[in-house]
Write a structure and sequence with these properties.
The longest helix has 8 residues. 42% of the residues are buried. Strands 1, 2, 3, 4, 5, 6, 7, 8, 9 and 10 form a ten-stranded antiparallel beta sheet that branches. The chain is mainly beta. The protein is built from four helices and ten strands. The chain has a single domain, classed as Methylpurine-DNA glycosylase (MPG) (3-methyladenine DNA Glycosylase, Chain A), CATH 3.10.300.
């Protein structure tokens, strides 16, 4: 194997530590039954897990985007309830998986109380468990940092498909778990990526300085959103025009 920085022999610090295996509880439904911006921020630093047979794939969530339902023209739910968007208007804590560009599947987690249709796009994770299987699923990735650094990349790496659309992420093979020990980090916020409508809304959240986020060398100008600590931060506000919490 190569020994240069970023090559496969330099595994994620989390993957090299027993810390990565000491996970806390599965996030309960109440976690998701809150304003979507709060959920998008608070998902950062938690672990997305997918169990496939006897193999568990896991990644630390490092980047998310919030979509605000009928109040957000960039959201799939903007036009209301359809066969495709029905899961978005249902109970929180379920997966919404859609197909894009004829080749990628994207994982969203339904937030807000039932009927509100908010969701969080999981944009990037830091691989920590099952990295060999992720590499098999993403043979074109040349570096660990590239393995799941985008919404289409992470679903390929972790075996998440449209079959998981509507899955309950508070139980079953696809879940989000807390870390056993929550580390402090700064969260930055900036414009969402790859959309036309409401592109200036700062609803993309990521762990500042993480090399595992999508487009790490081309991040837009962003303001720190808050400091994440062992307890979820207070002073939360909606940041789309005309709405506050």
């Amino acid at each position: 194997m190569k020994s240069s920085a970023g090559s496969w022999d330099r595994a994620s610090p989390l993957a090299l530590s027993a810390y990565s295996l000491r996970l806390g509880k599965i996030l309960p439904r109440g976690f998701y039954e809150r304003p979507v911006e709060q959920v998008a921020r608070d998902l950062l630093g938690n672990f997305l897990l997918h169990k496939i047979g006897n193999t568990t794939l896991a990644g630390k969530i490092v980047e998310t985007e919030a979509y605000l339902g009928v109040n957000d023209r960039a959201a799939h739910a903007w036009r209301g309830v359809t066969h495709r968007t029905r899961v978005l208007f249902g109970p929180p804590g379920h997966a919404y998986v859609y197909f894009i560009y004829g080749m990628y599947e994207c994982l969203n987690l339904v937030a807000e109380p039932e009927g509100r249709a908010g969701c969080v796009l999981v944009r990037a994770v830091e691989p920590v468990l099952g990295i060999g299987e992720m590499r098999r699923r993403r043979p074109g990735a040349r570096r660990l940092e590239d393995l799941a650094s985008g919404p289409g990349k992470l679903t390929l790496a972790m075996g998440i498909t449209r079959k998981h659309n509507g899955a309950d992420v508070t139980r079953g093979p696809l879940v989000v778990r807390e870390p056993a020990i929550r580390e402090a980090f700064r969260i930055a916020a900036g414009p969402r990526v790859g959309i036309t409508h409401n592109a200036d809304w700062p609803l993309r959240f990521y762990i500042e300085g993480s090399p595992y986020v999508s487009r790490p060398g081309r991040l837009p100008a962003a303001e720190p959103a808050n400091e994440q600590t062992a307890s979820h931060g207070a002073n939360r506000k909606r940041i789309c025009p005309g709405e506050t919490v």
